[in-house]
Structure formats: structure tokens, C-alpha cells
Amino acid sequence: MVCTLVVLGGVYVFYFTDWFKPKIIHITSASRMTSRQARNNPSPDTVPVTFGLTPPYRLTEITVVPLVAWETNKLVLPLWHLIAETNTAQLKSFEYGQRIRGMKPAVAGSRAEPLQPDVTYRLFVTAGSAKGQHDFVAKPLN
After folding, report:
1. How far from 94 is each of 21, 27, 31, 99, 100, CA to CA, in Å?
2. Which of these ranges, 25-34, 53-62, 88-97, 125-134, has the smallest mean pLDDT?
3. What does pTM read for this prediction?
4. Residue 36 has pLDDT above 60, yes or no
5. Backbone angles phi, psi at 54, to 5 degrees
6. Distance between CA 52 and CA 61 in Å, rounded?
7. By CB neighbour count within 10 A (0-12 exposed, 13-18 middle, 19+ buried), where does 113 fall?
8. In this structure, how many other beta carbons lie within 10 angstroms of the beta carbon of residue 51?
């Protein structure tokens, strides 16, 4: 009887809870121009890109790569790569190239590379065991 209860409990936990499912970060993106973004935009030929996270997360890693290059070589050099240095801020949104409190470039002294207009990129984010990815297109400035 006890074995049956343990097996039924295990089946319930496996199929009806989120304990064994990977945690996925849901990401959205938007391209729009504000005066602050115009000053801090690392890509002068494209409209600044803002990413939204649902729910807010304390990110441990952010990576942006060109999608075509990543599909042929998973070890492609990222255009923007941040890693957590200390206790990061809980983020609901962030901009491409933004300096984020508690995070530092993976390569010391590096900055976000400019995005090219009408090119598709892939954003990867990690927050502990939770991961997410999102494809976006850099829109031309004009």
C-alpha cells in the first residue's frame, strides 16, 4: 500500500508540477527612439532595441549573436556579452548595449558592437537555471 502511494505521488509530481520542467524566460523586443536612447545607442544606423522580461529576473548572462552566423557555428563571437559580477539588479526591461548594474563584459573593456540594419540577431539570457532566447531584427534608423 505504501509503495503504491509513493509511486502515485511520484507520478503526480512528475506530470502535474513544474519541478522537472526547464524554466523558460519569456522575452519581447521593441524598437523605438527616445532622446535618451539616441544619446546612448551603440548602433548609429539602427533604431535602439529594448527587451522586456516576463516576469522580472536577476540575469546572470546576456549574449547577442548574429543568427545566421550562430546557426552555422555555435561558437560564434558575440556582439554583446555580459556576465554577472555581483548581485545584479532585477530587470523588467533593458536596452541593447546598456550598462547593467552588477554585470560586466565577459571580455574586459569590450563594448556592444553596432547592430546592422535589417539583420536578424538572437538574444540569449540566463538567470540561474532559467534560460530564454529571442530573435529580433535591427530596424534601420530612417
Report:
1. 26, 11, 12, 9, 8
2. 25-34
3. 0.80
4. no
5. -130, 120
6. 15
7. middle
8. 22
